[in-house]
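Appendix B. One record, verbatim.
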Amino acid sequence: MTLLNVFGLYLALGAFAGTLAGLFGIGGGLIIVPVLIFSFGLQGISTEIAAHMAVGTSLATIVFTSMSSIRSHHLHAAVRWDIFKPMTVGIVMGALVGAWTASLLSGPALELVIGVFVILVALKMIFEVNPKPGRVVPGPAGLGAAGGGIGWASAIFGIGGGTLTVPYLSWCNVNMQQAVGTSAACGLPIAVAGALGNIWTGWGSPELPTLSLGFIYLPALLGIILTSVFFARVGANLAHRMNARLLKRIFAIMLILVGIRFLLS
């Protein structure tokens, strides 16, 4: 495939990821990472680095898309900054370690890990498994430790952390609106630290294609951010007109098929 054709694919991916993110209230990384792995395969990029590049590029896109989300939630007073600040300390450290952890895995092993994670998220969506409020918000040390675990996992899977942060904050008796808003804010330090970690771990890799910055593929980054922010608003508007619960389950089935594809490959 030529770079022009591939760039068109990235524009379409950004639109698709943005729409689904707005429609279902999930981070785009769950969609972006699998599709990037497939598209990198079409470009002939080595399987040893395709998954690493998909994760790094996904995190880089979240840096840009999370900014507008944070502003929107802040205007609605939905961000608990008192929770965000101590969590960010752990998030940054955890995301850097997560990027390093991912670099230690082979490409196929990372795809396997991502496949299992995607299936688990899909099952959670289908059966609507959510923790019940069971404790109070911990102190700074506890929030920092939780942020470290969330940042570590998010950097491995190339996501903004909402899949993990929202259930954790809900478990800590934070109301859902503030849990979502605070999770959106936490996505920015996850993405920044994770992207920087992937630049560092991928720097100088001999298998990288041109126009790469470590494990971040710049044409994919540009194409996705050009369309994802706008289409996230489209998806949010559609969510008020369609049966989002049914669509979420259909999307979850699609994620299961993607996860199985990774496991079988």
